[in-house]
Every structure is written in C-alpha cells, then in structure tokens.
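One such shown below:

_____
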Amino acid sequence: EKMSKVFTLLMLRVLMSLLLMGWISLWIIKPTTLWIQSWRQAEDTIKHTFFGYYGLNLAVFSFPPIALSMIGLIYLSLLPQYHRPASRGGKRGNVTVSRPAIINSFIGIVSCFEIIAVLLFLLFLAWTFYARVTNDLKKLMPVKTMNLELWQLKYFRVATRFGLLAEACLSLLLFPVLRGLSMFRLLNIQFAASVRYHVWLGTGLIFFALVHGGSTLFIWTITHHIEEEIWKWQRTGRVYIAGVISLVTGLLMWITSLPQIRRKKFEVFYYTHHLYILFLVSFLFHAGDRHFYWIVPGVFLFGLDKILRIVQSRSESRLLSARLLSCKAIELVLPKDPRLHYTPSSFIFVNIPMVSYFQWHPFSITSSSIVDKHTLSFMMKCEGKWTNSVYKKVEEAAISDKKIENMTVRVEGPYGLPSDDFIRYDTLFLVAGGIGITPFLSILQELAACGNRLKSLKRAQLVLAVRTFQEMNMLIPIYSILFNPIHNLSLKVKVFVTQEKKHSNGPTILHEFLAQSQVQSIHLGTDEDYSRFSILGPESFRRLATLVLVTVVTFLSLLIGLSHFFIPSEHKKQSQSMKLAASGAIKTAKEKVPSWVPDLVIIVSYAVAITVGGLAATLLQWRRQKQYREAPKEEVDTMERNFTELIPIEEHEIHIGERPKFEEILSEFEKNLRGWSSIGVLVCGPESMKEAVASMCRQRSQCFGVEDSGRSNRKMNLNFHSLNFNL
C-alpha cells in the first residue's frame, strides 16, 4: 500500500509538471505567426460543432491551471499527514536557491529562487513584445477612422502591444492571493510570502496599462480624435470607454495599496480593492472574450476561493477564555473540532462583530493542534484601534467579574503549509521581535509534543528582542517548555530587553521574571460552547477538488449552452460561406452579433457557476456541523497548568539594555555544533530585524553555489525563512 501511494504521488507530480509546462509553452508560442494561423484554422474547424470556439478556448487556455489546482489538492490530500518530517535538506553538496540575494528596504528580501522566476517572466514579456511588434511593423495597416502619419501609426501599434504585457500580468495576478485553493503550498510557499508576488504583478500590470492607455490617448489627442473615439461603444471590436474605466479603477486600487496609505488607512485600501469586480468586467468588455480566456483561470479560482471563505466565515464561534498580559497583549482561546489539524506558524483571519462587523484581521496561531486538541489560541498586541477595543471589552469583563454575553468570533482558516517543513533541519535558529514571537510559540509547543519523534532536529535557539520587561510575558504560553527538558532536543533562549536598565533589586533570571509576571485569566465560555461553537476549519483537500470540478463543469456547460442560444452558428454544409468568412469576405456568426454578447455570456456563466459552487460548499458545511454535533464528544480537559510546580532548568539568558548582535550570537552557536549542520533560520519581527538576519545569512552562504564545509571551515548551511505577515 505504501509503494502504491508513493507511485500515485509520483504520477500526480509528473502530471502537474506536464500541465504547467504545457500552459507555459502555450504562452511562449502564442505570439508566433505559425500559432496564430494554426489557431485560426482550429477555431474555424470546431466553431460549427457543439463544442464551439468558446469551448475550445476554455479547454486550451483556461482549463490547464484549473486542472493543476484540482490535481494539486488531490496530491496534498495524499501526502503524509502532519508531523511527518520532510527529506533533509542540509547535507553536504546541497544546492540551495532560496537564500537571500537582494536585501532592500523598498522591495524587501528577495531570494535566489525569486530572482530566477522574475528574470524568466521578464524574458517572456520581452519575447512576447518583440514577436508581436515585429509582426505588426511588417504588416502596417492604417486605422480606418483616423488618418495617421507613419510614425504615429507605428507608435500606436507599439502602444497597443503593451496591452498584451498588462494582460500577461493580469493572468497571474490573482493566483498569489488564493488561500484555501492556493497552489503555492505545493512549493512550500505560505500565503504571507506569496502576497508580495501579487504586489509585483499588480505594479507591472499598472505600468504596462498606463503605457498602453496613455499612449493611445496621446495619439487620439494630437490627431484630434479623442472625443470621437473615447466615448465609442461600437458594435464590434474594442470598447474604448471600458478600457478607460478599467485603467482608472486599476490605478485607484494601486495608489491606495501603496504602503504609505495601506498602513495608515487600511480600511481605505481594503474597500477600494473591491473595485476589482468593476476592473475585471471593464477589461472583459475592452479586450473581448478571446483575450479573457487567458485571464479566466485566476478569476475563476479566486471567485470560488472567495465564496468558500465567505461560507466558512458565516459559522460563528465563541470566546472561551482570555489571558490579559501586563504588556497590553491578550491571548484569546476558541473551541475547535479535535479533528482539525494545522501546522505550526499557521494563521487565521478573525472578525469580532461586537467590535466591528466588517473588519477582518490576520493572527498567527500560538497553540499546537496536537497539544490542545479542543482549543485554538492566538495572541494580539493591542496597538491599534481594533485591537485596543478587543482588549477593553475583555478587561471590562474581568474588572466587573461578569461574563460577556454573545462574544461571537468569526474565523476564517487556519491556513498554513501542508507539512512541518521546519523539522527537516538539524538545527533551528529562531529570531523574534516583540509580538513576532507568536508563530514560534506554536512551533516550540509542537517540538515539545513530538520530541521523541524528532529524528534530525537536535538543537534550537530562540533569540527574542523586546522593548520592556513586561513584554517578556508573551513567553508565558511556553513556560513549561522553557524550563523542562524536551526529549532529544536542546533548547536555549536569549532575551534582549532593549529599552530598560538593570535594577539591583529586581529578578535577574528568566524564570524569576515569568514567575512574577502579572497575568489575568478570564473564563467566558461554557462546556456547551465546545460542541455548539467549535471551529471546523476549511474543507478537506479532496472535497475542495470536488467543488472545483463541479464548478468548472457548470461553467463550461453554461458557457456552451448560452453561446449556442445567443451566438447562432452557420450550418456545416455552407462550405462556400465558411471559406468566404475565413477570408474576411463576409462576417462570421460571431461577428454578426454585438461583441458584448459573448462577454455577457461569460459573465452570466461565471456568476451562476460560482453560485452553484457556493451552494455546494454551504451544503457540505451544514453536513459537517450536523455530524460534529451528533458525534459523541470526548471529555475536554480545561485544567489550568500550574507553573509554580515546575522545576526550572535555567540555561537561558537575559541581556538588559542591549540589542542582539546576530553575527556574534550565531558564531557562538556555531561553536557548540558537532559536525556539519543544516540550520533553519526563521525570523518574525520588524523589517530592520529581518534585513539584519538576512544579510548575515547572505554573507555566510552562496546564493546558487554548492555548499562545501571544507571550503571555509564552517559547519553551517543557513536557510533563511521569513514568517512575517503583511497585507
């Protein structure tokens, strides 16, 4: 059985690779004259069949990425479940392309792998532009409605082809922001990391669209045709006013997403981004249905992903308990289904209607699903309006000693990698700044829970930088782990308190600090809440694959059916008419109807298909809730951990009034290593901290080279990972 499963996984991986390479190949050969002629012949051959040209376009251009998503979900469902170490990646001679290559405050930390991907994409854009423009300049055709000079005509054609580059960016734009249907998990790339690919593609899209639209408006202006052309909603061909609307909405979304606006006025960014619906509809009417089939995969998966998130977030949970820390941080505990498993460093999106009905905020999960089977915990630092409101609500309940009625919490997620990827390393070097400690709380609890199953991981060091003594309270959830040995794992902690001075009469060791910490625990829920308001999490990978299949079949069926009804085709026997149509002598059936009709067919088919997918997801969610409530319940352990009974094993350090010097810390850490070691360097904290650690990793490791411990007498192979979450 094990061999058959391995063989199945291998076949699925091969199939995914073939689909991906096939879709990329289509993009590469798309601008060539040979492909254009061959594709026109294929469309002419099949457009008089039941399948139609629209079915052919959908099957060839749109279906491969959607099929890749379905196969990827099946592949993830067959992977060994959680807590199974991946293959070790730190042996001698290991080639690594994920190390930091560019460290810049503007674009962030860019890995070697990302540089390769960006260069290949830019090369593809250059090839597409060159092939199209070269062909256009060889066969210059005058614009019927305008008398343009030769240079104006050439400039106009070049500007038109910039639209194709914007189209290429748009076709990939929505893939990085998928959550439940994310394909980046296949590459062990978390949602938090893939969001910036969306930013890069969006910036490229706006740049090429501005050149395309601005140059077109420039030509119309100097030839005095702007008023005549811009307001046209012609029966066939490009709808220019739709292009202007698309450009303006896209530019507005891009401007409000700039860090200067997004970080200070997040709600402005969030609500303005909902203009994507108007943007996509306008693009469809402007570019036409044939260009839109390349965009369909991202739009289709994003729409289904969005509706699945809405279905899950409609389920309500209740706050069971909370811990108020003196550093004005709060840990909230929610009930969950014991069958819900998630990997460390996973995150959730949280909405509390009592505070704000519309605001959703992401938080790293601080609990472990194998330690806390019935609960899920997350921690927030109260520094903004929303988090302060949550803190005050809970604090008022603690002071008045009254339970908060109907403290409803809506949760979306958890989202994370499908396996404990960090376990593959021999050593972990964890760096946290302030509230950046949260993902490491879940990681360390996971390590403590499966310590006897750790085969390669032997050492871990946590470096925590905080501003005040009180912020060390955020270590309380892992108090028992810090001061009790973990089987087969050596753990050491260094805490740096940067803005305090040492007091002669104060505690001097970490155990004393945490033992004297002021923590207020509040119980808000009842035993009934465990069964009625448990978080069930997203659907299983197999059910998600089934939902994608049902939705895409519905979309294809509606597209073909509605197209046959609204876009009548000529009879096959009219061979002469077909030949004349192919030569352009007469209009084809597609051209006899207004160009916006096929566009409306796509919109209606898409809307109905996504609705069907949402209804199916709602039915599955209702069945899961019913089965969970009717299933026999395990006894829930709600006993508080008594920290005072623990016997501290003090090996940890506190440095007061100092900032961590990562180079010195890592050099000291290296001295204690025995033999060659693969080190996973995980960072969560301010950008300056991430950049400092990334620079250290870059200096000690080659980007594309093969590591050889004998070359530099170093015993480490550093692998940098950032766990920060930024929208």
Summary: The mean pLDDT is 82. The longest strand covers residues 408-415. The CA atoms of residues 220 and 226 lie 5 Å apart.
